[in-house]
User: Fold this.
Amino acid sequence: MAFPKVTVVGAGQVGATAAFLMAVKGVADVVLVDVAEGIPQGKALDMMHARSVLRFGPRVSGANDYAATAGSDVIVVTAGIPRKPGMTRDELLATNGGIVRSVVGQAIAASPDAILVCVTNPLDVMTHLAWSVSGLPQERVLGMGGVLDSARFAYFIAEETGAAIDTVDALVVGQHGDAMVPLPRFSTVAGTPLTELLSADRVEEVVRRTIFGGAEVVSLLKTGSAFYAPGASITAMVEAIVGDSHATLPSCVRLTGQYGLDDVFVSVPATLGRAGLVAIPELALNDQELAALQSSAAGVREMAASLGLGG
Assistant:
């Protein structure tokens, strides 16, 4: 059986976890690319040993250049330095900007027809930068943040309510970071909005834990940052793309007038398929929710401007 082909740039914890999950779930063959000699090859070989136990079909291989990635359907960019304790996402801007400029150019040269999924932080502005560098249509450049933020929101909702996780649908929009916008009114347990299940105080606490969920992981780990949930979030997006499922997932996309925002990349519900972004189904936000989303986007726009991006 022939599988779609996915390039994962960066063989660190996030990239390797995503590669393994995509293989185990039968989503795609994966090429792990990293500048560190031996690391992508070693991790890929370890995964292939696991293939003998788990009996999954796809193959994972490792490389230090982009020749092996040619003809990929999706390129996932995880390369960059991780956030350290006490470090803001904004502080990552200059260093990771240089990395994204370099790897996107090389990856797209090898796979000019690919869909690009950016994971590198600060995620929203790095997605904008990746779009600018790649020369691709905006529909073919996406960022991962909203899926991860919404997954954390869903976890905290399930913990607070005692509900089974498969009955929880949660939604977070806006910037991936402290300015994210969880939407309790659009988040449900068995179809009932969270605002009808919990007091305002408890909703506020669940929202707070969601916003600082990533920082909580960083604080506990002491070194490094989250990788299991980011890896799973990447896998969900890639699965929707290569499977052409038209699933609607909260994804970082370029807005062109939706929600009163233009030429800025933030997470909103987005329908994904083989062409990348298929549609942006617009939510009926109230004034408070819309103001929060626009404020969140303003922070992304400010960072983008510092890199010479946006109008």
Q: What stands out?
A: The mean pLDDT is 96. The chain has two domains: 5-145, 146-306. The first strand starts at residue 5 and ends at 9.
